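Hey, weird one. I pasted the DUF1754-domain-containing protein sequence into the form twice and got a warning about non-standard characters only the second time. First submission, copied straight from the form history:
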Amino acid sequence: MSDLYDNVPGGSLKLKGGSGITNKIKKKKKKTKKDKEKLKSYAKDLISDDSASSEKINPIRVVTKTEAELKFEEIQRKRLDEKVEKAARRSHKERVAELNRKLEEMTEHYDIPKVGPG
């Protein structure tokens, strides 16, 4: 019986494509304190450069909306107000009663449909 298993190759299974797949996977390097300090100093340099350049150029940009945009926003506000008022008119008890009424009117999926005469 042991001679049946003599020709079986051992080791892990190989994926198609050979060793190309394993070469693509690289481990991420752990960040050290030196790297973090370098990033902090780089960020400080960028901030100081931005503050110096912003003092030189200070553009003022006024955003104005078109007439259509203002009208659209006004209509949206009105619709939202109407929706809130409509929801506030009915109490919780009334909403539950309406839901129960709708559920009673619905056909249930496990009912046996009446087919044929009688």
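That's the output from the first submission. The warning seems to come from a hidden character in my clipboard, not from the data itself. Helices lie at 20-24, 33-56, 67-89, 92-105.
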